[in-house]
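tool=predict chain=A
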Amino acid sequence: MSARLSAFLKGHIALVAATCLAGPAFAQQEDIIVTAQKRAENLQDVPISVNAFTGSTLENIGVTGVQSLQFATPGLVFNRTGPSAQPYIRGIGTRLSQGGLEPSVAVYLDGRYEPLSSAVMAEMADVERVEVLKGPQGTLYGRNATAGAIRIISKEVSDELEGQFSAGYGNYDYYTASASVNVPLTDSFGARITGMLKKRDAFAKNRIAGARDADDLDRWALRGKFRLEAGDNVTANLTLAYWKQDDAAGLDQIDLSPQAYSTGISRGGITGRNRGEIASVLDAIQRSDQFSAEFRVDVELGDIDLASITTFADYDGYTTIDADGTSARVFDAPGSVTSAQNFSQELQLVSGDKTGLEWIVGAYYFHGKSQADNKLDAGGPLLLSTGNQRNITDAFAIFGQATWHFDDQWSLTAGGRLGYERKSVSTRKSTAVPGATLALVPFDDKADWTSFTPKLTLQYDMGDAMVYLAYARGFKSGGYNYPAKNAAGVGSALNPETLDMIELGVKGDFFDRRVRANVAAYAYDYKDLQVTRASTQGSGSVTSVTENAANARIYGLDADVNWSVTDHFTLTSGLNLSHSEYRDFLTTAKMFNAVATGAPAVGMRDVAYNASGHALLRSPDWSAFISAEYDLPLANGAHVPINLSYSYKDDYDFDFIADPSSGRLRQKAYGLLNARITYVSANDNWRLAAWAQNLTDVHYFDDVVGTGAGIRASYGAPRTYGVDFTYRF
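tool=predict ok
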């Protein structure tokens, strides 16, 4: 690690030094307003480690969806298995959260919490900003924010008639179109309508004649926002959204096993020979849609604001996945059905900013129910099933946070959240599969948990800079695997996980606000963490198993530096250094059967493994990001922004590796280079851009899994490029 880090820092310093020749004119850093503490604040005044991006910044650096946030956010690893999102912040995350389990990173779409991992892989359109909150957010956000939170905030209804239209085309026959229009219908009522469409041919061609290719794109979304000002002190906002996909994005599974150890190849199957190929007789597909609604009412009560936030979502999904990565029928999932509905109600009372005391108190209720029914094909005469499992969650919480400003420099923030969660599970024989059920049926169980998550922050303001020392606790509720118990009766409710954090941070604007530097050092004490990995036992090898590890320790450093070198040249950089290790964790690791037994055999098995001292899975020792943008002015008043950005992640393990032959379960270190050049008209009404992502065509993985059949993997996106046009009015 040290050699790579040294090389990166030397290159970074050289690039920064070279920019000093750019000229004497200087620009200042712009204020970024965030709502990380549920009130509008300057990012530099918020004593939390936050990466915040405006919509235009995301466009310039090539972030088009929630998963690609990882390339602009050091410390964030965002993998996926087909439609299922797997975000990790500072080494904390959840591999698969199905039904009875939920993620450790809370994702919010505007004010709505999205607990379903397969419903957060959203494309982003008409976005105001995105906030990535690092560290436990157990007081104001509460539910399953052990690692942090990702908040995607779309543009609100405004008082102006405005809108924009965008269209783009790229390689792999990629095309996209989006449009938004904001209409103030009366003095008190307005609407903002946004639509988006994206399509792309498959990245991976299927070697099996007549079978479907994989990793294409076909989705669309529509969102309507409506605002009513009912008098001088009441504002109501309604958001209605719907999205639909019908593609095989992320389903390009191949077999990485040595040929002699591959179960699928031993049975006459073949696999893809490179990143652009798969070999599957199964037509991989995901058909999903979701309707959601959010109704927010804000009432001004003198110096106090009352907010009521009501949300609802209804999701349905159908997925097929080739779980061994070969054309043989070994461990395939030819049909997995998931449906989920959730409802939440939150009430907030927020103080004004006119006194030395700022506070917020509130209450929160969440109700969710989901159903999953997965089919399995192990090559036998009948399909198998992991059972039809229903999960119901009810969560209640009251919370409060207050900040005392002792004087112009010192302030103290204290808060806490008292929560109660209850989960119940019911598993029955599948109604869609006539074969055996690989779960104990009928099975019913329920469990409940109570938590208190405090927060304490001391802050010292020095004018252009501030220093803070924070303690915070995060909580993720317990839950159930899918299936809750296997046919042998193994399985039970998982314990909750808790994380205690101490963070020391500095935020400041220096050199006449030309340099912005935000640095945070943190230490985590992580207990009963829920570790999710693929099972390799019998036909259950296409399922995942989550277990409680004893505990873990993490410490690290986040550093973000923005430098306005001149009026036209800006450097943005970020760095995360992390050291993590499990403590007292006796578990299993992946090993090929032939290696374990010394006899000719195929497939993999779990073997006893002491993971104590092992780095957390999907937790690179360091990651970095740097972006250089030069805005070239033209004589006619137009200008040409030119952006180059580079993202780097050190190596990390997808699963525990018991033998070098299983080394493909490790993601090697990689870096991605993106570029964008845009012509912006003099009146800023239209712009034309050319872009390229993964310019050097680096190979990396979205997911690698050790199963009973071998090691399967899904590649990240290859080099893509194209043009887009935007018109605004």
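The domain at 2-728 is CATH 2.40.170.20 (Maltoporin; Chain A). Residues 1-25, 537-541 have pLDDT under 50 and may be disordered.
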